[in-house]
Amino acid sequence: MKFLPLIVLIGIVVLSIYISRNNYKKRYIEICTNLKNYNIEIKKYYYSMEKYKQEKFFNMLSPYWKPNFLSILDDNFKYANNMWALQKQIDKQQELFSELTKFNEKNKTHENK
């Protein structure tokens, strides 16, 4: 009977670790799926632009962004293996998409003038 509280405590800790690990895996899968869908949206948006805008945008990308953008267009994007890195990739993709939409909107206003 002395060891019963210790056994219960160990059981609770093991159960907590198991549940946390499963939640982490499910969350990783969910975020990875969201990033894949976001990359598809970036690709659709890019291809919905006129050809000359696509070329102009691509040419203005920095050497840092070009490989990332090409990997999205070629469906060859390397997804991170951990949650933190995956969230950083989402931040970068949001920044890229923001620049893409700004570029497209800016060029629309120039066309209408």
Please summarize what this structure is.
This protein is 83% helix and 0% strand. With 113 residues, it is mainly alpha-helical.
Protein described:
It comes from Clostridium oceanicum. This is DUF4363 domain-containing protein. The protein is an all-alpha fold. It has one domain (33-112). The protein contains four helices and no strands. The protein has helices spanning 4-48, 51-60, 65-73, 83-112. Helix 1 runs parallel beside helix 4.
Detail the topology: elements first, then pairings.
Elements: H1 4-48, H2 51-60, H3 65-73, H4 83-112
Helix pairs in contact: 1-4
Organism: Clostridium oceanicum
Protein name: DUF4363 domain-containing protein
Number of strands: 0
Low-confidence runs: none
Count of alpha and pi helical runs = 4
How would you sum up the global shape?
A: rod-shaped
Instruction: Note the gap between the termini.
Output: 85 Å
What composes the largest sheet?
none
Percent of residues in helical segments? over 70%
Compute the CA-based radius of gyration. Answer: 22 Å
Order of helices and strands: HHHH
Characterize the quaternary organization of these chains.
single chain
- Count the domains: 1
Indicate the proportion of strand residues: under 5%
Protein name: DUF4363 domain-containing protein
